What we know:
- There is one protein chain.
- The chain has 18 helices and 27 strands.
- It is an alpha/beta fold.
- Among the domains are: about 65-215, Rossmann fold (3-Layer(aba) Sandwich); about 470-565, ANL, C-terminal domain (GMP Synthetase, Chain A, domain 3, 2-Layer Sandwich), CATH 3.30.300.30.
- The strands form six sheets. It has an eight-stranded mixed beta sheet, with helices on both faces.
- Helix 8 (about 215-240) packs across helix 10.
- The protein is globular.
Amino acid sequence: xxxxxxxxxxxxxxxxxxxxxxxxxxRGHKLKSYAMAPPSLKDIWALSAGYADRDYLVYEDERxxxxxxxxxxxxxxxxxxxxxVEPGDRVAIAxxxxxxxxxxxxxxxxVGAACVGMNAWWVTDEMLYGIEDATPKMIIGDQERxxxxxxxxxxxxxxxxxxxxxxxxxxxxxxxxxxxxxxDGDLPDISVDPDDxxxxxxxxGTTGRPKGAQxxxxxxxxxxxxVAFAAMAxxxxxxxxxxxxxxxxxxxxxxxxxLLTTPLFHxxxxxxxxxxxxxxxxxxxxxxxxxxxxxxxxxxREKITSLTGVPxxxxxxxxxxxxxxxxxxxxxxxxxxxxxxxxxxxxKIDNAVETAKPNTGYGMTETxxxxxAIAAEFFVDKPDSAGPPMPTFDARCxxxxxxxxPIGETGELWVKGAPVIKGYLNRPDxxxxxxxxxxxxxxxxxxxDEDGFIYIVDRAKDMILRGGENIYCAEVExxxxxxxxxxxxxxxxxxxxxxxxxxxAAVVLRDGLSITGxxxxxxxxxxxxxHKIPRYIWFLDKPLPRNANGKFLRxxxxxxxxxxxxx
Length: 567
């Protein structure tokens, strides 16, 4: 079936075909891009107007058709323009996954501004950092997020605050969401360049505060086309093997019905799930928070065809007590991104849901979404693989000198293509370190097999991946170091069956001082989001191991510690 996949990919990307690939010059580099890609996400949104009567957004007992959504997006866009938002400005969204998130998002992009997706788990200090870094002209937030900054309006640079689903008074001036919906009229006629910033998503690194990745319209459009290509290519290849390709091509493609399970301030939910469903005229159902039992009810009620989240979500669905008595026959794909799907889960998904096939994608904020994708029989056959790279990427594995390694050998994965970000906002140093001559250094150690499939085997960067959230060790360490009792600290990831990794930290205290694990966690809780607080803390009575350059030997340290000894 790998020959069939190669043949189908070649056919779909051939000249004059829907996914024909060309080269474009972007920022001085020749990059692969889809020849027929719409210029901007504004054009993607405009295409969806043809689905007027279909359901688009669902949240509890609330429902928007595409016509409803286009009406609201036009109103919001007109309000933004009337209140001084111009092309090149930034507008922040700070809320949980309410439908207003996507309505605001499409409006912001349609007036040529960039959306700043603020992490809804950030505490006050982290939110103020993001606002200072991105300097948004407006902040559209819900009650909980606005409450965190309401007493600090002197630190938000004069940004206008807009409130969504407010439940009580806040000690600052807030414009109600209803005002934004009161501007009738068509969408403003504003030109958007493919290489303008579409959004700023904050991503963890290894050297301090999160960095604002600048995702362009060109990058995001190529990503959503990659999502569509992956599904089409693998589906057709399998049908060709089974002798049903002609029948498949004669059928009307099913209308997607996606359950949104991960935050819209990440590329998995926003760029891959939401934009993919929008392009296909699909329905997007929101949840207040993740709950496997509630997800099963929604799958049955809304006839969900695709559930994509972090891997633990798929596991919790198929192992839930209500799974056997829930109608899940609408599901066609069940899987996730944000962390590697454990190989055992691939087979369990394949066996648990007769109609659904396991799927996953590997990607990064820095690539506007997926780099690879794998599903169905290909995933079952290669459960530890992330799949082949998408057509708009060149991919290579290199050694420490930047030289290609032979097929089958491991090296750092570098990728190049239109989806690679412009850079990091206000961080030319980090941009130059991460992107060389158009090549993005992923920081992941990988190998390529003879079929062109990529296997991620380790991470070169010191980063913890907990439930799809990137947590960098430096921030955890910096937070712990703010306690006066701490002399040394090294943070690292501890394998966890449910979340992929949990946060661990080895701590050496100053002579004569003491602190308990719970006291140190309480200290962290005032400074960082709770998912960054160490679950495991080891108090050591000797200096942490370091190499000749003075860097902590994290792997050696981790291997010397036992979970049973953690505080």
